[in-house]
């Protein structure tokens, strides 16, 4: 439906004798009756061994105008095969859009590079826009879109905000008693409707009591701070289409005022002409300029965007000025909209994803614009996306698209700024707890409290890390390194970004600091474990030392131990043996009660006074300190995994 802006044929018949099939096909094409034209052109193509370039061109254009891009692609490919680089820039642009709509972007890119190989400036612009679009794919989407309930099975597009309501153009239930149908798409002519996008069951109603005509009324724009309205309509005289000398009724931009829900003081803007179309009015944020689409002579392509200065009364006070080749191309530039210093518009001539795409360009001055940037997904796709309006301050906008999954021909979608995905930059250093030295290439694992593992990274050579945490999550960071303990940090993020959290110091304890070696034997490092005289119960003092054993075994689940308990030589040998064995078994039971798997304690045995560490055997006079050296419990490591990699607890 977006193509209605250009012209309307009145349906005059060609005078004279019986027409040939080609004449009838051409007449249908010129009257925008593309379905009928396609039928006849297909007949001609099947009848002739060598189909003429004229018929191939018309079949390609007819399918393209019907947004049947896959069918159009086949015919444009035939043209390109027959004519090569002489096929013309307009056909190349259309073929590129058809290839992208058919999910063949690589072939489309190569076609562009080949065609513009001799136009370095144009090629550089395309490559810059391609790079910008590809960079968007590496970022989180900036917008969220949703389909609106008021869309109909026919065409709905050209949204505009009117206070808190939404005005839009639609072909829904606009069929008059006279039975007028727009031949381009076999839908009724357009009227302007009003709805509340925030109320799901709000039934759209006609905008203003007296605005609609028997033909197209669409594309409304409102002057800021006034009741002045601009809109697009056919040239009409006495409720009939008013044609130019070629039998065509072009489009014009009208201006009126709203009074008591009626349109009054309607006038045609001075730059309108029956010889070309003007439409898609858009007013700058300061109300001083009117942007619009036109196919007036002297443009760059099929349709271009122009601007005029408007005076206090809302009339044009300067001649139309083409926005230039930074904005306009050989293709279609349409549906301008201005928010602040940004010009949004739809184009199939700039590098995009397929069909019409929405672009944004910063207005640098009245005559200068920044390189148009594709808005990317989800606003743009491989079909037609157009007529965008957006208010950056409210983070709210609307646009139209004929993408798959809609309710009808064209549908209106709402745009909101995407909720933040990343909320907190968390950075710092992983350090050796004993020495304070950095631990390079430490492993960092990110876990979502609800779904589990998310991602992993490493610290750099200086032990530095920098990780971005998602919003509205219970994040768990696990820091580890082989032969070091593991450290966990829990961070809960909200819905909105937070200030970066920097200089966080994460300390890991080396395994070597938890053990002591005696020859080839490796033991968990503990101080003497004290028991009450003649008892094997675990005392509070003993628990303090056993926490060291628990810590080592919890941090390094791959190790297995055996427990050996010893006494000094005082007392009988048999008594000391039993006492030490009871203490070893009591120690084992304590560790198991604290969560250590039974299988990780290979044995727990007492040796009494049979393995003294000094000369203090039976009958030898020794100090208490010397006897203390023999009263010991050893936690000997008998097995460990090769890299001492601690595992997720």
UniProtKB/TrEMBL annotation:
Every OmpA-like domain range: 518-641
Signal peptide start-end: 1-18
Subcellular location: Cell outer membrane
Superkingdom to which the source organism belongs: Bacteria
Main location (coarse class): membrane
Keyword terms of this UniProt record: Cell outer membrane, Membrane, Signal
CDD domains referenced in this protein's UniProt entry, alphabetically: OmpA_C-like (cd07185)
SUPFAM superfamilies reported for this sequence: Carboxypeptidase regulatory domain-like, DPP6 N-terminal domain-like, OmpA-like, TPR-like
InterPro entries: Bact_OuterMem_StrucFunc, CarboxyPept-like_regulatory, OMP_bac, OmpA-like, OmpA-like_sf, TPR-like_helical_dom_sf, WD40
GO CC terms in record: cell outer membrane
PANTHER family: LIPOPROTEIN YIAD-RELATED (PTHR30329:SF21), STATOR ELEMENT OF FLAGELLAR MOTOR COMPLEX (PTHR30329)
Official protein name in the record: OmpA family protein
């Amino acid at each position: 439906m977006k193509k209605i802006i250009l012209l309307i044929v009145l349906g005059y018949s060609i005078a004279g004798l019986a027409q040939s099939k080609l004449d009838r096909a051409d007449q249908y094409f010129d009257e925008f009756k593309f379905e009928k034209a396609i039928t006849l052109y297909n007949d001609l193509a099947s009848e002739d061994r060598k189909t003429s370039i004229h018929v191939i061109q018309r079949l390609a254009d007819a399918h393209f105008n019907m947004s049947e891009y896959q069918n159009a692609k086949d015919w444009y490919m035939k043209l390109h095969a027959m004519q090569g680089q002489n096929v013309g820039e307009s056909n190349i642009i259309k073929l590129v859009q058809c290839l992208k709509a058919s999910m063949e972007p690589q072939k489309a890119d190569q076609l562009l590079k080949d065609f513009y190989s001799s136009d370095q400036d144009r090629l550089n612009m395309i490559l810059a826009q391609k790079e910008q679009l590809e960079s968007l794919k590496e970022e989180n989407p900036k917008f969220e879109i949703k389909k609106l309930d008021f869309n109909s099975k026919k065409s709905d597009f050209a949204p505009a905000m009117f206070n808190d309501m939404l005005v839009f153009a639609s072909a829904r239930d606009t069929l008059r008693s006279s039975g007028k149908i727009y031949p381009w798409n076999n839908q009724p002519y357009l009227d302007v409707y009003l709805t509340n996008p925030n109320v799901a069951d709000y039934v759209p109603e006609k905008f203003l009591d007296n605005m609609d005509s028997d033909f197209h009324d669409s594309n409304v724009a409102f002057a800021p701070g006034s009741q002045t309205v601009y809109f697009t309509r056919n040239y009409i005289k006495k409720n009939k289409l008013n044609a130019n000398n070629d039998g065509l009724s072009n489009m014009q931009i009208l201006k009126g005022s709203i009074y008591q829900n009626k349109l009054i003081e309607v006038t045609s803007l001075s730059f309108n002409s029956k010889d070309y179309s003007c439409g898609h009015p858009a007013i700058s944020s300061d109300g001083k300029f009117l942007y619009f689409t036109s196919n007036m002579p002297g443009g760059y392509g099929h349709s271009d965007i122009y601007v005029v200065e408007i005076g206090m009364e809302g009339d044009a006070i300067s001649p139309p000025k083409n926005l230039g080749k930074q904005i306009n191309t050989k293709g279609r530039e349409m549906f301008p909209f201005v928010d602040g210093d940004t010009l949004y518009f739809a184009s199939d001539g700039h590098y995009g994803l397929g069909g019409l795409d929405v672009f944004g360009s910063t207005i640098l001055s009245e005559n200068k614009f920044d390189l148009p940037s594709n808005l990317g997904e989800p606003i743009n796709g491989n079909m037609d996306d157009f007529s965008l309006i957006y208010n950056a301050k409210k983070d709210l906008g609307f646009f139209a698209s004929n993408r798959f999954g809609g309710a009808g021909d064209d549908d209106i979608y709402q745009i909101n700024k995407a909720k933040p995905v990343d909320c907190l930059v968390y950075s710092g250093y992983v350090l050796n707890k004993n020495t304070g030295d950095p631990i390079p290439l430490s492993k960092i694992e990110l876990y979502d409290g609800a779904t589990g593992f998310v991602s992993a990274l490493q610290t750099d050579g200086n032990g530095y890390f920098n990780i971005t945490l998602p919003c509205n999550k219970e994040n768990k960071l696990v820091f580890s390194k082989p032969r070091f303990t593991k450290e966990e940090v829990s961070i809960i993020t909200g819905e909105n970004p937070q200030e970066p959290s920097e200089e966080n110091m994460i300390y890991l304890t080396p395994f070597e600091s938890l053990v002591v070696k005696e020859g080839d034997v490796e033991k968990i490092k503990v101080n003497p474990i004290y028991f009450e005289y003649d008892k094997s119960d675990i005392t509070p003092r003993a628990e303090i030392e056993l926490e060291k054993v628990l810590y080592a075994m919890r941090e390094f689940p791959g190790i297995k131990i055996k427990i050996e308990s010893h006494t000094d030589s005082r007392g009988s040998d048999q008594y000391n043996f039993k006492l030490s064995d009871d203490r070893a078994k009591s120690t084992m039971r304590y560790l198991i009660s604290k969560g250590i798997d039974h299988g990780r304690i290979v044995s727990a045995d007492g040796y009494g006074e049979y393995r003294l560490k000094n000369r203090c055997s039976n009958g030898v006079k020794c100090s208490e300190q010397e006897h203390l050296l023999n009263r010991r419990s050893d936690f000997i490591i008998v097995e460990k995994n090769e890299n001492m990699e601690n595992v997720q607890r």
